[in-house]
Specification:
This protein has helices at 14-24, 43-49, 62-65, 79-89, 109-116, 121-127, and strands at residues 7-9, 28-33, 36-42, 72-74, 93-97, 103-108. The protein is an alpha/beta fold. The radius of gyration is 15 Å and the shape is globular.
């Protein structure tokens, strides 16, 4: 699980979000609308929902491409519970919350692969140092 959750306002441009992801070596940001969670945007979302459609990353805002279907899991859930929830909801990331529903991290499919099957191709790729 990634414990450092990065929050960006819905008004943030895709260019700014991509830069923040690169600087922190992460693939997602939690998008906020005022004090509320608006959703999640991944590096893949930026490519598929914006760049591939010819949208300008300097003027397109996170709020325009945000995945609003937030899927959360309790921090004390097992890795099997997380994997099953990802499978059921067809998502690659889960927001992890404490008992008060405050975010404490994000768990990705790669995180689960590293933990559950570290010698698998996905587990080894996910644990490798970034190549950027």
């Amino acid at each position: 699980m990634t414990k450092e959750v990065v929050y960006l306002p819905a008004e943030t441009t895709l260019e700014e979000a991509a830069r923040a992801m690169r600087e922190r070596d992460i693939g997602d940001v939690v998008v906020t609308q005022g004090p509320e969670l608006a959703g999640l945007v991944t590096d893949r979302d930026i490519v598929v929902r914006a760049v591939a459609d010819g949208r300008d990353p300097t003027s397109t805002r996170l709020g325009e491409i945000t995945s609003r279907d937030i899927v959360m899991i309790q921090q004390d859930a097992s890795t099997s519970d997380a994997a099953n929830l990802m499978r059921e909801r067809a998502v690659r990331r889960l927001l992890v919350a404490d008992d008060d529903r405050r975010l404490v991290g994000i768990v990705s499919l790669g995180d689960l692969a590293e933990r559950m099957d570290p010698t698998s191709a996905l587990g080894e790729i996910s644990s490798a140092a970034p190549n950027n």
